[in-house]
């Protein structure tokens, strides 16, 4: 386990080597979050009301800020790109000779990068925009604590989705477009752009039951108190179920991919 912790620390320190990139990323995240907030300010101004369908403007501003925080610290394309590069260069075969589990290495590496982005991009961005636009506190202590749990689950789900998508490259022999497909699905079905309580039916009902909903929508809904205590526990269990299914998928695909490398490499 110490080896994986070392990989995580190495990934964190590697990101620090590009200090100018930190400022560029902070500026980019600020633009994205401000744009999302501006959209909802315009929507509510056009409606001529501060409450639409039982959702206040301040709740939507908070939702936009939290959505930027949840997705801002994750980079699905990084995991997929790492697998694609290893496959293209042939380095992936070396992992079969090491006393390490490649998917777990990917997870440790992403944990280090996640910590870096959280500390240098997400927290400063959310803090600044919250001071400018205002941000609601969690609906209760319970909802605040459960938001942290759902956020951790969101990170695990995104990683597993990314790893699963990346491992498909062993059969396609390229990771090209895999990150784009996953990114499109996340933006459409995670609730990042439009929360499901504003989405038309039956799209909203379908999206609520897809695993992407646990990436943005459910963490934010918990934070804002849109879910009762019983519903919060229920959806946490469902989210853990999705994570378990994706984990089994990653383990199965990696076993098949390992056999494929062994057969082709001799």
UniProtKB/TrEMBL annotation:
<feature type="transmembrane region" description="Helical">
    <location>
        <begin position="148"/>
        <end position="173"/>
    </location>
</feature>
<keyword id="KW-1133">Transmembrane helix</keyword>
<keyword id="KW-0472">Membrane</keyword>
<feature type="transmembrane region" description="Helical">
    <location>
        <begin position="233"/>
        <end position="254"/>
    </location>
</feature>
<dbReference type="Pfam" id="PF06182">
    <property type="entry name" value="ABC2_membrane_6"/>
</dbReference>
<dbReference type="InterPro" id="IPR010390">
    <property type="entry name" value="ABC-2_transporter-like"/>
</dbReference>
<keyword id="KW-0812">Transmembrane</keyword>
<feature type="transmembrane region" description="Helical">
    <location>
        <begin position="122"/>
        <end position="142"/>
    </location>
</feature>
<feature type="transmembrane region" description="Helical">
    <location>
        <begin position="180"/>
        <end position="198"/>
    </location>
</feature>
<protein>
    <submittedName>
        <fullName>ABC-2 type transport system permease protein</fullName>
    </submittedName>
</protein>
